[in-house]
Design brief:
There is one protein chain. This protein has 326 residues and is of the alpha/beta class. The protein has two domains: 130 residues, NAD(P)-binding Rossmann-like Domain (Rossmann fold, 3-Layer(aba) Sandwich), CATH 3.40.50.720; 183 residues, 3-Layer(aba) Sandwich (Rossmann fold), CATH 3.40.50. The chain is 39% helix and 14% strand. The protein contains 14 helices and twelve strands. The strands form two sheets. Strands 8-7-6-9-10-11-12 form a seven-stranded parallel beta sheet, with helices on both faces. A five-stranded parallel beta sheet has the order 2-1-3-4-5, sandwiched between helices. Helix 4 links the parallel strand 4 and strand 5. Helix 1 packs parallel to helix 13 and helix 5 packs across helix 7. The relative contact order is 0.14. Bound molecules: (2R)-2,3-dihydroxypropanoic acid. (2R)-2,3-dihydroxypropanoic acid binds next to loops.
Length: 326
Amino acid sequence: MKPRILVARAVFPQVLTLLAQHFDVTANQDDALWSSAELIQQLQGKQGVFTTGSERISQELLAACPDLKICANMAVGFNNFDLDAMTAAGVLGTNTPDVLTETTADFGFALMMATARRMAESEHFLRAGLWNRWRYDMFAGAEVHGSTLGILGMGRIGQGIARRGAFGFGMNVIYHNRSRLDAATEAACGASYVSKQDLLQRSDHLVLVLPYSPEAHHVIGATELAQMKPTASLVNIARGGIVDDAALAIALKQGTIAAAGLDVFEGEPKVHPDLLSVPNVVLTPHIASATIPTRLAMAQLAADNLIGFLVHGKAVTPLNPQVVSA
Ligand code: DGY
């Protein structure tokens, strides 16, 4: 008998076809958004689940789904997993690293440029029919080339953004991370290590790429924003909750910083109402990895993890491999 799995959200049809070769699949191609109770109900008797970053795998869910052996996230981030609880319950978690690195770095850089050069704000102005003349300072933004690019969180995506800035745009790239990169990696991405305070004070454009953890909650709040340059822009492509969105809206209104670009939000898909009414923020709906080839590669890797583990006994990108060796 084939193992039974749940694909918790809509996914590429070809990935479902692949999964159906190995599993008895319950799919959700209507993309219904299930409550925790509904997810638990759907998971009864399933050995595996294909999740996106939106489905919370909690201790309560694990206790209610004793057949579950693997949760395969179609995302590099996995803050929707209670990984400690999964490990304690003997449930493997997997994510999709690497396949989205360059695409997400492209987007981070694009959002930084759009923010610095006021692209969304000026487009709204044009669409509103307000453009009636050229003016010397109309939507004059901040320089990108030659400016200082700060990166908080220097994993694979951060390094990709650093390379784009240093070698594509002649930027002075500085970063802060829990641990400093080795000298060869720093040279390969053209970045220098600085303290968090230096990063806040010196960056013309500060891009956040650190993973979410309880320690990273509101790592950028009113105090940190107050240390930034009034001409600086802030870009968050990491996770909602890393920035205190209410404090950011106030900082944008008061001119504490010049602009922000946000792809992720606290409590998304809800967006803090004050952010919707400030003009100097570019808002996008969590699409940093969204190109068809990359999303396909992410879905394929999540499927490979399910097949690898449930069929062949070895996942490709496990997060808590100790579950398997236990
Ligand atoms: C990730 O991979 O973590 C992204 O945020 C989901 O698109």
